[in-house]
Amino acid sequence: MIEPYVNAPARYQEYDPIAPRVATLIAARIAEIEPKLAVEHVGSTAVPGCAGKGIVDLAVLYEDGGLDKAKQVLDTLGFQRQTTRDPFPEDRPMRVGAISYAGRIYQLHAHVIREDSSEIIKLRGFRDRLRADPELREAYESTKRQIIAAGVTDSVAYCEAKGSFIRQVLEPGAVADFKNLADR
Fold first, then answer.
1. Could you report the per-residue pLDDT of 9-22, keeping only the tens digit for each?
2. Which of 168, 141, 156, 173 lies closest to 45 in space, CA to CA?
3. Residue 85: which pLDDT band, with cuts at 50, 70 and 90?
4. Which helix (H) or strand (E) holds 64?
5. Are 145 and 13 in contact (CB under 8 A)?
6. Terminus-to-terminus CA distance in the chain, angstroms?
């Protein structure tokens, strides 16, 4: 089901309304194999209208003691380990893959996260804020366009560059003037 992942330079692309269907399809397949795993669609493709790299990010959530089973399920489906520099550690792994759907190849990142971790709270919080606030979404898109325009196409460097925006939004008492935040 899951095809080989192709490492490619980071690029900016418009929102694809089919991406949530892809996320739902993969989540259902994971649930068929292991119902104890919850899967949530996170990242830009989970935010209607939000442009970005176009990678479908999934949070694969496991209960205490379920990390190895979560990795095994992803392996069974054909997800692969990262081959980029600085891969996630195996105690908080990310698996990659691709799927052909609706005449297109969708790249997938499956973030394996403990269900009660602070990380999933932050991922949900950022996604939900982007969904609720068009001004924040536009500032985030502007930040990503600026990163690409500056010549940053290494996928790890791209993620690091947008990380400061995300951290500033998530910090308590974050500024409401997102336009200025994007210009930093």
1. 999 999 999 999 99
2. 141
3. confident
4. none
5. no
6. 42
Q: Which helix (H) or strand (E) holds 130?
A: helix 118-132
Question: How far apart, in whole angstroms, are the C-alpha atoms of residue 132 and residue 141?
Answer: 15
The structure tokens 């054909």 sit at 78
**How much is the mean pLDDT over the chain?**
93
State the chain's maximal CA–CA distance in angstroms: 46
58-78: string of b/e by CB count within 10 Å (b at 16+)? bbbbbeeebbeebbebbeebe
Write down all domains in the chain, each with its CATH number in brackets: 19-133 (3.30.460.10)
Quote the distance between the C-alpha of residue 166 and its chain's center: 13
* Cα gap 184→175, rounded to integer Å: 12
